[in-house]
Amino acid sequence: EVQLVETGGGLVQPGKSLKLTCATSGFTFSNAWMDWVRQSPEKQLEWVAQIKDKSNNYATYYAESVKGRFTISRDDSKSSVYLQMNSLKEEDTAIYYCTLGGPYWGQGVMVTVSS
Amino acid sequence: DIVMTQSPSSLAVSAGETVTINCKSSQSLLSSGNQKNYLAWYQQKPGQSPKLLIYLASTRESGVPDRFIGSGSGTDFTLTISSVQAEDLADYYCQQHYSYPPTFGAGTKLELK
User: Among candidates B60, B95, B96, which has minimal Cα distance to B80?
Assistant: First the structure.
């Protein structure tokens, strides 16, 4: 059974950093392309970032709204994907989901950016 | 970026009714190479992550009841729910994955009349 479990969310002040972790199991992680998607308090879904697998040189892609501030990475030995979020803004407040694509989504983790 | 315009934003229904949710993309989602439309529909209930209902515009995900029907091609797509059940009350989103970045519609809230 595919499982995706996000951790690391919380309340953080604007300008600060936070790192999210998505621990996975139930599939061959090393071959998978992984994404982060977020959902604002207004319920709008927004794709955030993607990281491809080793055969694709771990290529990464970002939404314009987070480019230069967020970094997606992975550790195939731990079957985990990460989202390092720097220079956080109030508009980054959202539930962050880790997803393998299609039907495979984590339960989400809340990130609140507020002073 | 491809803009996904979903309508209506909310819909009040009675159990047993048939409902239609529309999704229009700013560019065609039809691949000329394989004639497939890269459009998906998700259902989201309160406190849950989005659940995939339909992919490639009209293919039902495993386990999804056959009252959920996806149709359309190019830029215009529809999700039809026939004989709505109480368990179908949720938010519905369309998503294109034809080109990067993947983008979502703003959602349709299905409520009880």
Answer: B60
Please report, for residues A16, A18, A111, B62, the alpha-carbon distance to residue A89 in angstroms, rounded to integers and kept in the order given.
8, 11, 11, 39
Model confidence over B12-43: pLDDT tens digits? 999 999 999 999 999 999 999 999 999 999 99
d(CA B63, CA A44): 26
pLDDT digits (tens, 9 = 90+) for A7-36: 999 999 999 999 999 999 999 999 999 999
- From chain A, the residues in CB contact with B61 under 8 A are 102-103
Count, residues in chain B: 113
CB contact under 8 A, A45 and B93: yes
- Say if CB B97 and CB A45 are below 8 A apart: no
A46 reaches B (C-beta below 8 A): yes
* Distance from C-alpha of B28 to C-alpha of B63, rounded to nearest angstrom: 29
Beta bridge partners of A76: none
